[in-house]
What does this fold into?
Amino acid sequence: MSKPALTVHVVDDDEAFRDSLLWLLDSHGYPTRGHDSAEALLGAISPAESACLVADVRMPGLSGLELLDEMRAQGLRWPVIFITGHGDLPMAVQALRQGAFDFHEKPFDQTALFASVDRALALAAQQQAHAQSRARVDARLESLTQREREVLDLVVQGKMNKLIADALGISIKTVEVHRGKMMDKMQVRSVAELIHAVMSVADERVLP
It folds into this structure.
């Protein structure tokens, strides 16, 4: 099965283990990048990048949990999979409570790890598509004049043209002109499509 083109970042201070895990993922078709610390990862990535992360929980410097918190603070919503030693299990459970995607105990089952990475990459791809869609809608909203945006807000509230005209102190004919231009700029054909587009920008919830 072909793998998503998104990168799997691996963070582990144990060079031998990190190289082994990178080789394993590479050999199964996953694009990868390795980092020897959480700080190295944070210095090498862009907030605009979509990817997934496989990381050790216990590391010098920033721990896995602290890395997860820092990524969230920077707006990075990557799915994070933790690799843990047996003694780190309580920490891994805490990581899940803080929003980690999954965790695997050493020695991990390769098939289970691949399945977890596949799910994480699918989620990352979904998040990427969602972000791109939001960016397109944002750009369309920015192209509206102030009056067109006022008309949009009232249309989304379910107001008919006469009520919009009364609210804005303009004629119904002028409302129709602004409404038509607004719908063209938003690239929608119906009020339902317009509402869906606006709600996709207003919705700040994290994808599951």
